């Protein structure tokens, strides 16, 4: 199917695409690229956990008060645009797109991502965003850790994106330092292994759930991974006879 026919098919039936995977698996780059190519929205669910971490720090809420942290999720005036070419995040009038990527956020995010009330609220909100886009004659690709299993287990296309440890480390190091020297790789190794351990406490994202397709990005470039997922999209559209 060519790109134009695929976009037309999607506009007839709508689509939800769920992508999970560990840090450095390439899911953000691939999801943005796919959303642009398919003409659908993009949802970075990690950015929502990051935004809440920024908000709790900004408000001076005590991390040990789990109920207050969960209330903050509901109160936070979060706005995200779903344009994959240039995604932005605001809290109220304040743009926090860059701030939520600062190391101080990664340092505290576990207080947010391991709070089960926060996770329940996030899952409901993320699901609503995906379903609204699908019903609106378009669709959404959402990436995270629990999209294929908790947020949208009924997504039209579900993918677990994996890559071997060294490939993931190399990607993250290049992203952060612009090079992949042994010294920088060791610094990033400590961060990534710590994050994966904390994340694994609340979500299973290294083993595909039943019905979820695994794509291994180790030897593939962005284009190769996108092609593999587009094949799954075409199979779904054919199944639904769109
Ligand atoms: O994908 P990321 O690095 O921006 O994610 C930030 C943090 O949020 C990471 O520690 C995992 C967590 N997260 C999560 O628990 N569930 C999601 N659906 C997305 C992210």
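Q: What amino acid sequence fits the structure above?
A:
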């Amino acid at each position: 199917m060519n790109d134009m026919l695929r976009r037309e098919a999607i506009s007839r039936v709508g689509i939800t695409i769920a992508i999970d995977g560990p840090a450095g698996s390439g899911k953000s780059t691939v999801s943005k690229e796919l959303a642009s190519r398919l003409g659908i929205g993009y949802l970075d669910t990690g950015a929502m956990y990051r935004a809440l971490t920024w908000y709790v720090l900004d408000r001076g809420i005590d991390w040990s008060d789990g109920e207050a942290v969960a209330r903050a999720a509901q109160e936070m005036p979060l706005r995200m645009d779903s344009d994959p070419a240039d995604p932005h995040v605001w809290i109220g009038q304040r743009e926090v797109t860059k701030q939520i990527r600062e190391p101080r956020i990664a340092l505290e995010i576990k207080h947010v991502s391991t709070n089960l009330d926060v996770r329940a609220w996030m899952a409901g909100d993320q699901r609503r965003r995906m379903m609204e886009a699908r019903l609106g004659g378009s669709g959404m690709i959402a990436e995270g850790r629990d999209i294929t299993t908790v947020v949208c287990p009924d997504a039209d296309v579900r993918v677990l994106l994996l890559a071997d440890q060294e490939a993931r480390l190399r990607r993250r190091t290049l992203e952060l330092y612009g090079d992949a020297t042994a010294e920088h790789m060791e610094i990033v190794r400590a961060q990534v292994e710590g994050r994966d351990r904390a994340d694994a406490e609340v979500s299973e994202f290294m083993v595909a759930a039943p019905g979820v397709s695994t794509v291994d990005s180790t030897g593939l470039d962005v284009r190769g991974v996108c092609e593999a997922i587009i094949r799954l999209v075409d199979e779904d559209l054919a199944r639904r006879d769109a």
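Q: And what stands out in the fold?
A: Residues 116-135 form the longest helix (20 residues).
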